[in-house]
């Protein structure tokens, strides 16, 4: 939001001389990422640039008052076009809003799709409109701030309003509450900040339980987890509290990486039974079952799954597990033992059917 460009831009800032790096940080990062076989995206703050408008932000309504107008629309458009032409990003990730009108945004996205045909645009390019101006008045500010307080009290995070042009949704510090037919990603930091914050203490960071279960919840609903990692400015190293949590995710993915990465949503994302939360997703004709707080030994009836004579249950990354259900109707029961007492247990179920629809899992996917 400070408007400082991490590439040597040819579009000069009219308010700050040399407001960019001489070194092409964006280009070097893109080359390194793609060299490892990764996709590469760029972020541009289209709604805030404090070199054009430094209105203090003390409440959600102040965001609208801080969005620059006038010449900023053409300036931001030129910057993003430069990013597209120079770096051909696989993901174009905007934030807060977009200063141009809908026609200008349509032209910009059309240019992006021409240059990067399989590129992805997120849902924060909300174009400037009459409504954007109306939201700056005092009455609207009261409504906006009241609604934001209620969401904060319920710990609901932020769900951006749906813009006219987008490919993916991006709830922030939140998640969608059902299986979504639209691509989406849950966006959050490892603590309460995006990037490194030297003022964060241990209580601000995700616990292993929170991180593991929120990831399973996102997977069950067809989403991705966009977890922000920020190196320290002093030495470029990833701080130990962040690195620890990346190892936790690697441990969970290592349980059955293919079953998670190649998965699709199942008939239902999950339920609560026997005092435990459960999540489901489909994987190569099987159903992966994630159980929260399993304990080292236990059993659970799954009313969404019915066993058949062919039903088999395989524990992923734990000790022994088996199913005792043999009837073709009634709930599947999973028993497990051994394997420690982590926050999540994963089981792969084959040969079962969706109890409510009778569909085989291979056909019961979105």
Which residues sit in consecutive blocks of at least 5 with pLDDT less than 50?
358-366
Strand line-up of the largest beta sheet: 6-7-8-13-10
Integer-rounded radius of gyration = 24 Å
Strand content: 15-25%
Counted beta strands = 14
Sheet/helix structural class: alpha+beta
Helices and strands, in order, run as HEHHEHEHHEHEHHEEEEEEEEE
**What sort of overall outline do the alpha carbons produce when their principal axes are compared?**
elongated
Mean pLDDT: 86
State the CATH class of the largest domain.
Answer: Alpha Beta
| Biggest sheet record | 5 strands, antiparallel
Q: How is the topology of this model organized?
A:
Elements: H1 25-35, E1 41-45, H2 60-66, H3 72-87, E2 91-95, H4 102-115, E3 120-121, H5 130-134, H6 138-153, E4 185-189, H7 208-220, E5 224-228, H8 240-255, H9 257-261, E6 270-273, E7 276-283, E8 286-292, E9 297-306, E10 312-316, E11 320-323, E12 331-337, E13 344-350, E14 353-354
Parallel strand pairs: 1-2, 2-3, 4-5
Antiparallel strand pairs: 6-7, 7-8, 8-13, 9-12, 9-14, 10-13, 11-12
Report on this structure.
- With 366 residues, the chain is α+β, with helices and mostly antiparallel strands.
- The chain has two domains: 25-260, Alpha-Beta Barrel (TIM Barrel); 265-354, Sandwich (Immunoglobulin-like), CATH 2.60.40.
- 28% of the residues lie in helices and 21% in strands.
- The protein is built from nine helices and 14 strands.
- It has helices at residues 25-35, 60-66, 72-87, 102-115, 130-134, 138-153, 208-220, 240-255, 257-261, and strands at residues 41-45, 91-95, 120-121, 185-189, 224-228, 270-273, 276-283, 286-292, 297-306, 312-316, 320-323, 331-337, 344-350, 353-354.
- The strands form four sheets. Strands 6-7-8-13-10 form a five-stranded antiparallel beta sheet. Strands 11-12-9-14 form a four-stranded antiparallel beta sheet, with no helix packed on it. Strands 1-2-3 form a three-stranded parallel beta sheet, with helices on one face.
- A hairpin with a 2-residue loop joins strand 6 (270-273) and strand 7 (276-283).
- Helix 3 packs parallel to helix 4 (102-115).
- The chain is elongated and about 70 Å long.
- The chain starts with 24 loop residues before the first helix and ends in a 12-residue tail after the last strand.
- 31% of the residues are buried.
- Residues 358-366 have low confidence and may be disordered.
């Amino acid at each position: 939001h400070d408007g400082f460009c991490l590439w040597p831009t040819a579009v000069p800032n009219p308010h700050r001389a040399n407001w960019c790096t001489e070194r092409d940080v964006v280009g070097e990062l893109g080359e390194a990422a793609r060299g490892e076989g990764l996709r590469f995206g760029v972020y541009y703050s289209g709604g805030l640039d404090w070199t054009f408008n430094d209105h203090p932000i003390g409440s959600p309504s102040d965001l609208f008052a801080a969005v620059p107008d006038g010449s900023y629309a053409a300036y931001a458009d030129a910057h993003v076009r430069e990013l597209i032409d120079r770096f051909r990003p696989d993901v174009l990730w905007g934030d807060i809003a977009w200063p141009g009108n809908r026609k200008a945004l349509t032209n910009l996205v059309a240019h992006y799709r021409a240059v990067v045909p399989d590129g992805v645009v997120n849902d924060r390019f909300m174009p400037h409109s009459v409504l954007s101006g109306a939201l700056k008045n005092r009455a609207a500010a009261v409504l906006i701030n009241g609604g934001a307080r209620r969401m904060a009290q319920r710990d609901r995070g932020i769900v951006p309003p749906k813009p006219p042009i987008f490919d993916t949704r991006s709830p922030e510090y939140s998640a969608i509450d059902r299986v979504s037919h639209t691509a989406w990603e849950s966006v959050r930091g490892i603590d309460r900040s995006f990037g490194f914050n030297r003022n964060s203490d241990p209580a601000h960071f995700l616990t292993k339980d929170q991180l593991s279960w929120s990831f399973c919840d996102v997977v069950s609903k067809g989403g991705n987890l966009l977890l922000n990692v920020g190196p320290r400015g002093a030495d470029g190293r990833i701080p130990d509290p962040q690195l620890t949590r990346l190892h936790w995710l690697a441990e969970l993915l290592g349980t059955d990486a293919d079953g998670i990465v190649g998965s699709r949503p199942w008939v239902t994302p999950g339920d609560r039974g026997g005092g435990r939360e459960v999540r489901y997703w489909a994987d190569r004709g099987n159903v992966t079952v994630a159980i929260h707080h399993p304990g080292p030994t236990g059993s659970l009836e799954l009313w969404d799954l019915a066993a058949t004579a062919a039903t088999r249950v395989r524990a992923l990354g734990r000790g022994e597990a088996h199913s005792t259900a043999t009837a073709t109707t009634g709930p599947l029961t999973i028993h497990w033992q051994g394997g420690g007492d982590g926050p999540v247990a994963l089981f792969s179920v084959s040969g079962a059917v969706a109890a409510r629809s009778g569909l085989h899992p291979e056909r019961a996917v979105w």
